[in-house]
Amino acid sequence: MSKQIIIATKNKGKVREFEQMFAKDGYEVKSLLDYKDIPDIEEIGETFAENASIKAETLAKALNEVVIGDDSGLVVDALDGRPGVYSARYAGLTKSDAANNEKVLKEMQDIPSEDRTARFVCAIAVASPQENTFIVEGTCEGVIAREPVGTNGFGYDPIMFLPAFDKTMAQLTANEKNEISHRAKALQQLISKWK
């Protein structure tokens, strides 16, 4: 019998990252893309943790299974924390990565280098029909680049510059990203807590 983990997301980039991270432990990852009859889950929380919990708990109840919910995004200090929980739809409801990046870069165009600090934040919630939901969080610090660079990853990866690597997140290989990303850090906490 195969081990299976259900992730409450339709984001193909997130699904791919979860698959890569759980593959070494022999888990098959399922997502909302595999459950076409489940309606979209509205993210009405004010924090990443609230949204992750809403997604996980809604799907856990619908499927009567243990479900992982993930909510993540970009927090830019000079923009008072925006895009924050609105990261996926920052430039509009069409959820365009390119448009979101363009909007952040436009808002940051006059911000000096020393004030361009930002971080990716990931909250992961594990919900079960029989247990209380638990939540872990991870962050990845960086600065907002002046222009998009790199073609790997998704979302804001091309504009998130990591000084320690002298690269944007989108210039890292999948293996490199899966070692240091906000999602990787949250998953490391999740795995130690889950065991």
Main features:
Maf protein, 195 residues, seven-stranded mixed sheet, alpha/beta
In short:
This protein is α/β, with parallel strands linked by helices and 195 residues long.
Describe this entry's structure for a reader.
- The chain is of the alpha/beta class and 195 residues long.
- It has a single domain (3-194), classed as Maf protein.
- 31% of the residues lie in helices and 26% in strands.
- The protein is built from five helices and seven strands; from the N terminus they run βαβαβαββββαα.
- A seven-stranded mixed beta sheet has the order 2-1-3-4-5-6-7.
- A hairpin with a 4-residue loop joins strand 6 (160-162) and strand 7.
- Helix 4 packs across helix 5 (182-194).
- The longest helix has 16 residues, at 48-63.
- The chain is globular and about 50 Å long.
- The two termini are 20 Å apart.
- It comes from Alkalihalophilus lindianensis.
- Mg(2+) binds at residues 42, 71.
